[in-house]
Amino acid sequence: MAVIRVALAGRAYDVVIEPGLLSRTGSAAARFLASYAGGRKVPFVADENTHRLYAAGVESDLAAHGLAAEWFVVAPGEDAKTWRVLEALTDWLLALGVTRSDHVFALGGGVVGDLVGFACAIAKRGCGFVQIPTTLLAQVDSSVGGKTAINTKAGKNLIGAFHQPALVLIDPLVLETLPEREMRAGFAEVVKYGLLGDAAFFDWLEVNSNKVLAREPAALEHAIATSIAMKAAIVAEDERETQDRRALLNLGHTFGHALEAETGFSDRLLHGEAVALGMVLAARYSARRGELSSADADRATGAIAAAGLPANLPSLGLACDGAQLVDHMRHDKKAEGTTLPFLLLKGIGTAYVARDVDLADIAAFLDIELVA
Questions:
Q1: Does position 2 have pLDDT exceeding 60, yes or no?
Q2: Is 231 annotated in the active site?
Q3: What is the reported pLDDT for 218?
Q4: What's the total number of domains in the chain?
Q5: Are 189 and 60 contained in the same domain?
Q6: Residue that terminates a domain, selected from 153, 177, 201
Q7: Is 328 a catalytic residue?
């Protein structure tokens, strides 16, 4: 068991990591269930897959504490992060009589967490929520830090709010039902923490990635806890990404979001897969600028490829050129006026924000990578 404190001023919360924790939700989150003791049902939001797998167990545990759940179930995938679903969810919460002192439970991957977090940020001008992430990507990244959002025609995660959870409960055992592709996609975010700020962790991952992907308990818990501890420290320093510190967490995302946009934000390219290839591109572009050695760029690429993640652009079969991918980047929420900061590398474990990147040079670089 590991407990990591996200130390925000006046709003600190715990991330608890323990096998079997989901089956003990009633006791693990007792403080946040107290307002439902009078017979009101506890609002749980899940996608169809997590509801099918875990609803019965959650209900059995709650019943042992004299509680019952009410479910809002969404379709799996990014299509749930829309205005339409957000409206339906907030209407449902209001119909249940959720108050600002209540907590809504988000059981699922990053999509469910983002949707519920944003709904709770705006319902009654802000009510509480508890994250119970069920994918590796959500466990090591999106469930911690308070970024919540939905997608629009203009791009991904452009409408949202910073709204921190009250508690995050992580049960590594739920990853046993996670499809291999989703597991590998989540592992990309684990690699990200090594690349951006912890060379020793990256070294460990090069040796132990197979154990993590095979869900060996000790290796898996170490990977999750190390990733969360790093994110918690960064979020505590720069909660709303007003400085460069939290921006480091976006390593691979500028390239990755452009690739997601080009593939229609679909299952053709999962978010973690896009981030993985985005990190490869960030490393290779850093080498192009002479800031990262070719050996380190190759190490980054090798770690991604060894995990079974996409490590080169031709593998995607895109029908576009570099300029088209750059056009997607212009809609990135990190754009500042006419410039776009890029997260690049000076070494394994040393990421930085580059504000002098010429987008024309990015387009030329991508043209080369598209046929490399």
A1: yes
A2: yes
A3: 97
A4: 2
A5: no
A6: 177
A7: no
Per-residue confidence at 243, pLDDT binned at 50, 70, 90? confident
Q: In this structure, are 116 and 6 located in the same domain?
A: yes
Residue 6: pLDDT above 70? yes
Residue ranges making up the domain that contains 98: 2-177
Catalytic, out of 51, 192, 271, 299:
271
pLDDT digits (tens, 9 = 90+) for 78-129: 899 999 999 999 999 999 999 999 999 999 999 999 999 999 999 999 999 9
**Catalytic annotation on 240?**
no
Same domain, 130 and 151: yes
Catalytic option among 49, 51, 182, 189: 189
CB burial string 291-326: b at 16+ within 10 A, e below: ebeeebbebbbebbeebbbbbbbeebebebebeebb
Instruction: Encode burial over 110-127: b for 16+ CB neighbours within 10 A, e otherwise.
Output: bbbbbbbbbbbbbbeeeb
Concerning whether 346 is annotated as a catalytic residue, the answer is no
Residue 332 pLDDT exceeds 80: no
CATH number for 112? 3.40.50.1970
Residue 246 known to be catalytic: yes
Q: Are residues 25 and 54 in the same domain?
A: yes
Tell me whether residue 156 is one of the annotated catalytic residues: no
Q: Which of 51, 103, 147, 284 is catalytic?
A: 147
Look up 147 and say whether it is catalytic. Answer: yes
Asked if residue 165 and residue 186 are part of one domain, the reply reads no
Of 137, 155, 177, the position where a domain reaches its end is 177
Contact 68, 41 (CB under 8 A): yes
Reported confidence tier of residue 327, pLDDT bands at 50, 70, 90: very high
Q: Which of 103, 257, 284, 288 is an active site residue?
A: 257
Beta strands in 167-277 (DSSP E): 167-170
